[in-house]
């Protein structure tokens, strides 16, 4: 098998693993939506990440893994803190918005990342990418129009705004994700993400934390296992294939969200949500194809 064929096979395997990771994350989203409705987004995240950190600690210390170097730890800390803010906004919004609509709105993250790259990395935004971003944001307006016509109420509007804010944070997370995967193994990434997020949530535990009822423990445990497993799968995949090749796998989450939302929450996908999601996905694909992926600076990871 030639080198090019091996590379294509490796990319295909990485795409399959990433798809499995997205599926696991989608099921976790459904569990977390149920928990957020029952015990609140903060408590759902606190107990899920704590359970995930305990699972990760058993593997990390059980294998006698080495503590990460300072520069690696800085990336873990930055992404963990960022993910804590991103997660609380997303799951607070998800408790108020249909799953398919929430995922569709979150798809704008790659488009926001274009402008973050211009600000943080001083990259020039091409005209093609600007037009793609306009198409994507038009898709957001279409989704909001459908929400207004369906009269989902002010809570759904606030939830949608929270999800868009989460997408803005995830845009920066995209920049960090591949760098982190190149610096650390899947087990280390999953453990430190769970650990740092848990520490962040514990900072306000004296004011907000409540012990979950016994009936919620199985869902919390399952969500923790799925989140931890998904982080490992995605980290493994992003370490073996360029982000531009794996980006399309993110859009499979819309299918999962539509199916799981209907099964568990009797949510029907609005026609305008489908139209808006399609516009955003096309915009992201156009933007992603504008040029070869930029090589990260070895000193900064950006």
Name the beta content range.
under 5%
Order of helices and strands: HHHHHHHHHHHHH
Low-confidence stretches: 290-302
- Terminal-residue CA separation: 34 Å
Total individual domains: 1
Quaternary structure type: single chain
Give the CA-based shape.
Answer: globular
Largest sheet: none
Q: Which structural class best describes the helix and strand composition?
A: mainly alpha
Query: Please, what is the average pLDDT?
Result: 84
Radius of gyration: 19 Å
| DSSP helical segment count | 13
Amount of helix: over 70%
Number of separate strands: 0
Question: How would you describe the overall organization of this protein?
Answer:
The chain starts with a helix and ends in a 14-residue tail after the last helix. It is mostly helical. It contains 13 helices and no strands. The chain is globular and about 50 Å long.
Short description:
By secondary structure, the protein is mainly α.
Structural features:
transmembrane; mainly alpha; membrane; transmembrane helix; disordered C terminus; 302 residues; EamA domain-containing protein; globular; EmrE-like
């Amino acid at each position: 098998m030639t080198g090019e064929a091996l590379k294509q096979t490796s990319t295909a395997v990485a795409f399959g693993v990433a798809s499995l990771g997205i599926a696991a994350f989608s099921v976790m989203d459904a569990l977390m939506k149920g928990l957020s409705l029952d015990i609140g987004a903060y408590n759902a995240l606190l107990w899920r990440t704590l359970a995930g950190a305990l699972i990760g600690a058993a593997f990390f210390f059980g294998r006698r893994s080495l503590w990460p170097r300072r520069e690696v730890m800085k990336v873990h800390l930055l992404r963990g803190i960022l993910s804590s803010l991103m997660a609380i906004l997303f799951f607070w919004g998800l408790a108020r918005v249909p799953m398919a609509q929430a995922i569709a709105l979150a798809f704008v993250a790659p488009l926001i990342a274009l402008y973050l790259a211009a600000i943080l990395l001083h990259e020039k935004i091409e005209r093609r990418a600007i037009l793609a971003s306009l198409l994507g944001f038009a898709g957001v307006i279409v989704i909001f129009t459908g929400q207004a016509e369906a009269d989902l109420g002010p809570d759904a509007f606030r939830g949608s705004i929270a999800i868009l804010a989460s997408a803005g944070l995830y845009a920066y997370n995209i920049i960090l994700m591949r760098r982190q995967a190149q610096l650390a193994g899947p087990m280390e990434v999953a453990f430190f993400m769970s650990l740092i997020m848990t520490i962040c949530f514990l900072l306000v535990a004296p004011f907000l934390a409540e012990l979950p009822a016994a009936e919620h423990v199985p869902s919390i445990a399952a969500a923790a296992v799925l989140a931890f497993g998904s982080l490992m799968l995605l980290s493994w995949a992003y370490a073996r294939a360029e982000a531009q090749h794996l980006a399309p796998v993110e859009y499979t989450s819309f299918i999962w969200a539509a199916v799981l939302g209907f099964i568990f929450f009797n949510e029907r996908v609005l026609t305008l949500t489908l139209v808006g999601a399609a516009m955003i996905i096309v915009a992201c694909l156009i933007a992603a194809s504008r040029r070869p992926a930029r090589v990260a600076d070895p000193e900064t990871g950006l």
